[in-house]
Amino acid sequence: MLATFKNIAFLALLMGSATVEAASGSGRTTRYWDCCKGSCGWSGKASVSQPIQSCDKNDNPLSNMGAKNGCESGGQAYMCSNQSPWAVNDNLAYGFAAVKLQGGSESSWCCACYKLTFTSGPVSGKQMIVQATNTGGDLGNNHFDLAMPGGGVGIFNGCTNEWGAPPNGWGQQYGGISSRSECDNFPEKLKAGCYWRFDWFKGADNPDVTFEEVTCPRAITDKSKCIRSGQNPT
């Protein structure tokens, strides 16, 4: 009987470890800013206080969580400008990302926060806490597509409708702009997040990361308005 209890305890330990592993590991990053309503902005994606906040064409918060994506014909809902990244100090930043994790789904990652530790490039050793606001069908596993103005619109482009950006967004469709000075011509509300890429982020190009799920900082959820059930932002 004792052996049986030991076996049960061992299996429970393994299952607990597997649960932790599902929310931590090694991954990769890319960058984007497509101005579209994030997929975690729809009701029913996860057990949360409310979906990720979306904004109208004038960057005003929308109360209608069912508003059509601005990246679709006739849509009214866009990414809010305050979902830009910002520096907390020289070694820590906060922001938002489209996420896809191996073994997970939107129900497990929408509005969850992850601490990323960069392991390559000029930001190696720096850390960033991001909240999952979106999911990309073109993302690989353990992939964080960091939201930063001027990072490239990728597959979808809502920036032309929302901000009057060029037809393929600012800069290249994938990767975006290539110099800090290009941020000078951005809409005022997007400039700080654009400069962040070349200042705190040092112009890093898709650095690798290790990641772990963490409790969301209140500074992030105050912007997104989305808190996962059972979490108390710090």
TrEMBL record:
Catalytic machinery residues: 34
Domain of life: Eukaryota
UniProt cross-references to CDD domains, sorted A to Z: DPBB_GH45_endoglucanase
Cross-referenced Pfam families: Glyco_hydro_45
Gene3D superfamilies the record matches: RlpA-like domain
EC category name: hydrolase
Keywords for the protein's UniProt record, in alphabetical order: Carbohydrate metabolism, Cellulose degradation, Glycosidase, Hydrolase, Polysaccharide degradation, Signal
Protein name: Cellulase
InterPro entries in the record: GH45_Enzymes (IPR052288), Glyco_hydro_45 (IPR000334), RlpA-like_sf (IPR036908)
Keyword match Transport: no
Signal sequence segment: 1-22
EC number: 3.2.1.4
Similarity annotation: Belongs to the glycosyl hydrolase 45 (cellulase K) family.
